[in-house]
């Protein structure tokens, strides 16, 4: 039997399903940005319409998700302003990951539709952004069916938060607050997609 020591996961194992980890029908992506402590929730950056959350079960160090605040599983439900905001925040996330972790490349994508797509949360859109390095897939996951994460999530959070804070238009309040990112120019889109 393979054993991996991961003491930070005890919070997930011992969680109470009714302790605020759920929002719309128990959605963590609705609840986490509403929590009092962004650092504890792993919300690293925010905009008016979206936020960046570190993945608790990363494929690689720095595995983040860009998530709209609106609870929906359909891109067509988002306004033009929400769509543009999400895209701009994804670009800023890639920049922050480059500055903080200096990866060789990145993967970005979605698991849409649940079950067959591999996504565990299918009713709240989110884009995975995963830094990649040459050789980050080696014998451990291929032969040993084990993935080694080489940095603690708290350390990754600090590095990524600092990188967001150094970007133009960034505003940081308290030490446990996410960085608020304001884009250089406002969107020219309406918030109405009814036409």
Topology:
Elements: H1 10-13, H2 28-31, H3 38-41, E1 43-46, E2 50-54, E3 64-68, H4 80-101, E4 105-109, E5 127-132, H5 139-142, H6 153-165, E6 170-171, E7 179-181
Helix pairs in contact: 4-6
Domain HIT: 28-139
Keywords: Hydrolase, Nucleotide-binding
InterPro entries: AP-4-A_phosphorylase (IPR052908), FHIT (IPR039383), HIT-like (IPR011146), HIT-like_sf (IPR036265)
Main beta-sheet annotation: 7 strands, mixed
CATH architecture: 2-Layer Sandwich
Cα distance spanning the termini: 58 Å
Strand tally: 7
- Mean pLDDT across every amino acid position: 81
Query: Percent helix among the residues?
Result: 25-40%
**SS-based class:** alpha+beta
In terms of DSSP E residues, the strand content is 15-25%
Shape: globular
Low-confidence stretches: 17-23
Instruction: Please count the helical segments.
Output: 6
Largest sheet, spatial ordering of strands: 4-5-3-2-1-7-6
The third-level CATH topology is HIT family, subunit A
CATH top level class name: Alpha Beta
How do the SSEs run, as a string of H and E? Answer: HHHEEEHEEHHEE
Number of domains: 1
Organism: Halogeometricum pallidum JCM 14848
Protein name: Hit family hydrolase, diadenosine tetraphosphate hydrolase
InterPro entries: AP-4-A_phosphorylase (IPR052908), FHIT (IPR039383), HIT-like (IPR011146), HIT-like_sf (IPR036265)
Motif (Histidine triad motif): 124-128
């Amino acid at each position: 039997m393979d054993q991996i020591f991961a003491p930070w996961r005890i919070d997930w194992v011992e969680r109470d399903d009714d302790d605020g980890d759920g929002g719309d029908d128990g959605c963590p992506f609705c609840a986490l940005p509403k929590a009092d402590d962004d650092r504890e929730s792993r919300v690293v950056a925010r905009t008016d319409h979206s936020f960046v959350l570190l993945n608790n079960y990363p494929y690689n160090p720095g595995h983040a998700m860009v998530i709209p605040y609106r609870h929906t599983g359909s891109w067509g439900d988002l306004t033009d302003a929400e769509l543009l905001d999400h895209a701009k925040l994804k670009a800023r996330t890639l920049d922050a990951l480059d500055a903080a972790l200096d990866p060789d490349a990145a993967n970005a994508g979605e698991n849409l539709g649940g079950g067959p797509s591999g996504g565990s949360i299918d009713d709240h859109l989110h884009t995975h952004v995963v830094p990649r390095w040459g050789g980050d897939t080696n014998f451990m996951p291929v032969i040993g069916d084990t993935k080694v994460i080489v940095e603690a999530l708290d350390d990754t959070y600090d590095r990524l938060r600092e990188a967001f804070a150094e970007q133009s238009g960034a505003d940081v309040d308290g030490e446990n607050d996410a960085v608020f990112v304001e884009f250089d120019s406002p969107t020219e889109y309406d918030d109405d997609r009814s036409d």
